[in-house]
Structure formats: structure tokens, C-alpha cells
Amino acid sequence: MTMDNAVLQVVPAIRMMLDGRGLKTVKVSDRTPPDDMDDDTPDLKTIKQMIDMFKAQHGEDARCSLRIAGVGTLTVNDAPEVGRMRGKIVIVTGAAQGFGEGIARCLAAEGANIVVADLNEEAGRQTVERLNEMVKGNRAIFVRTDVADPASLENLVRETVMEFGGVDLFVSNAGVLRAGGLDAMTPEAFDFVTRINYNAYFYCVRAVAPVMKLQNEWSGENYGDIVQINSKSGLRGSKANFAYAGGKFGGLGLTQSFALELAPFRIKVNSVCPGNFYEGPLWSDPDNGLFVQYLAAGKVPGAKTVEDVRRYYMSQVPMGKGTAPEDVTKAIMYLVEQTCETGQAIPVTGGQVMIN
Q1: Measured between alpha carbons, how far is 278 from 289 in angstroms, rounded to an integer?
Q2: Residue 236 above 90 pLDDT?
Q3: What radius of gyration, in Å, describes the C-alpha atoms of the chain?
Q4: What are phi and psi of 122, to 5 degrees?
Q5: How many of the other CB atoms lie within 10 Å of CB of 40?
Q6: What pairing do the DSSP bridges indicate for beta strands 140-144 and 65-68?
Q7: 42: which DSSP letter?
């Protein structure tokens, strides 16, 4: 067993042995040198006996450090005292800015430990700095991640386990959009959108599912959650935007299929389908935002300015407001807190899309 495999195959189980509700984090440090670890790592049953003895002597809530051969020193910390997400370990992809940053910020405010996973290292580290200034008892870290690269996602999960001891919620948020009709869309642009919005969702679930399975194997009361941030474009077609809508429709098929496969392991898989976040960079970026793209693509008949496009889209929302990260985060927390919904697509669109 390699050192990295030992961490992934042991530490998430230990976290649940310490508290079956997942209200503790476990940080790995002082790792065992590779030449000392070949057959040294105890099996999980032996580790469970050691932890049970420790808890019997020191109590359930004791803070401690454990030395596990083949792994390293594990420092155990308790969850914050308050918050709907207290103690949860949450990965949010695409969280350096925009919608992902807003989701990460809202979850951190509710007591979650946040892993900001993004390619944009400068913005990601700035986001983590802001999150750590606002939290109380929980923490945030940055891990540079390319969601289109399975090896990068495996590193993301490994770094998360090293820092916190496991993963409770994976928010697959990273996405891209290239608008254009049949005459304008190139095969290269179509493949790029599909690779990020569809393929990468599979890569994310494939990377995180083993850790969640292991956690639940050692806790009879824990659930894991995977939430894909989809779109209202995953619920109905989108003119001159078929690359994006097609990937999102496909994402809902993945959500339902993953949900069926992972339900026996108490891992819920759901999608949230937001309406338009007009204030974020996806829509409002002055160079390549959707308002600019849609004006160029002629999606809004008669529109001559970006403001014409903005007014057109806002007029379609019955609630008269865009969908904010706070709105989507409430849907995410509902999905985490309940234990009966899986394979669902929850619209958060201001009434723009209603499920029949």
C-alpha cells in the first residue's frame, strides 16, 4: 500500500470511528517515510479497537492526536458549535469567483469546512483568505484543480482528506458556456463545453465516491452528498445554446444514474437547477459574459445593446429577480439535511421554469 493509498483507505474511516455523525475533522501531518511503511499500517478493525479504548478512557469528546503507522500523525478537532452545516467537509469546484464563490461563502457561514477547487490560483487563494477571516471554528483551503483532468481530481480528494479527514459534500459547480447556433458553433468549442459540463461531472463523482463509501461503511448514521449545479437549461432547450443545454440535460441523466448506483451506500446524488445569476461574471463579464455572447449570437430579436438583452431576460422571471448564490445554497442545505431525496433536479429559477 502506497502512502497516499494508506491515507485514502484509512483516514476517512478513522474520522467516522471517532464520531459517527462526522462532527470531527482529522488533519494528517508528520507522514511516515515511504521506506518505513510497507506492511506497518494496521487493519481497520485493529484501529477501531484502539480508538474504542481511547474513547472509553477519555470520553467521546476528547481532542487527541493519533499516530498511525504507515499514515502519520492525525490531529483531531471538533466541529464549530453552530450552523446548519457545522463540521461538514465540503468541496466546491469552480469556487474562486462567481456563483461557486457565493456558494462556498454561504456554506462556510453555516459552519462548513470549505475546499475551494479551481484553476484560478490567484483568485482562489484570495477567496480562501476572505473565507478564513469570516469563519469561527471551521476553515477553508485552496487546491488548484482542473476538473477536466481525472488525476487532478484525485489529487483534490487526497488533499482534502489530508487536511480534514474526509468529504461529506461535493458540489460539482465548475462549468463553462459557449453560445452559438449550428452555423457558428465549432466542433472544438462544442467538445470543450461538453468536456467541462458533462465529462467532468463523471470524473468528479468517480474521484469522490470511494471516500464517501468508506466513511459510511464505518458509520451507521452518516450520509454522503454529491450535488451538481446544473441549470434551468438542463430542464428545457435553449435557442442557439445547444452545447450548454445538451451537456446540462446529460448531467441530469448522470445524476439519476449515479443516484441509483450509490443509494445502497447512503450517498445521495442530486442536481440544483438555478435560474440566471445576472450579477455574476458568467452573465455580466464585459468581455465574454452571456449578455455579450447572446447579443452577438442574436438570441434576443431586436436587441441592439447589452442592456436590451438584460431587460429581456429579467422580464421572463415571475419573481422579478435573478437567482443568487444564497438561493441555491438553501437548496443544497435542504438536500444535505434530508435523507429521502436522491436523483432529483430541483429548480431554483424564480418561477421561470416550473416542473410538471
Answers
A1: 10
A2: yes
A3: 21
A4: -60, -50
A5: 13
A6: unpaired
A7: P
10-29 pLDDT, tens digit each: 999 999 998 888 888 999 99
Taken in order 55, 58, 59, 65, the sign of the CA dihedral is negative
Please list the residues that pair with 169 across neighbouring strands. 90, 225
pTM (two decimals) = 0.92
Phi and psi at residue 41, to the nearest 5°: -65, 120
Q: Which helix (H) or strand (E) element contains residue 84?
A: none
Cell digits for 264? 445502497
Q: Nearest CA to 156 among 225, 90, 221, 242?
A: 90
Mark out the alpha helices in the chain (DSSP H runs): 3-18, 44-58, 98-109, 121-134, 150-164, 187-194, 200-217, 242-262, 281-284, 290-297, 306-314, 325-337
Burial of 60 (0-12, 13-18, 19+ CB in 10 A): exposed
Cα angle, residue 241 at apex, residues 238 and 242 outer, rounded to 5°: 85
Residues annotated as catalytic are: 244
What is the pLDDT averaged over residues 36-48? 76
Closest C-alpha among 64, 55, 59 to residue 27? 64
CB 290 within 8 Å of CB 179: yes
- Find where cell 446529460 sits: 250
Top CATH class, 89-276+317-348: alpha beta
Task: From 318, 345, 351, 325, select the one nearest 234 (Cα to Cα).
Answer: 345
Distance CA 161, CA 9 (A): 10
- What is the average pLDDT value for the chain, to the nearest integer? 92
The model's pLDDT over 295-308, given as tens digits with 9 standing for 90+, comes to 998 989 999 999 99
Band of the pLDDT at 80, cuts 50, 70, 90? confident
**Over 80: is that where the pLDDT of 179 sits?**
yes
Helix (H, G, I), strand (E, B) or coil at 124: helix
Q: Which amino acid is at 302?
A: G
Ordered by start, the domain boundaries in the chain are 3-78, 89-276+317-348
The amino acid present at 306, given as its one-letter code, is V
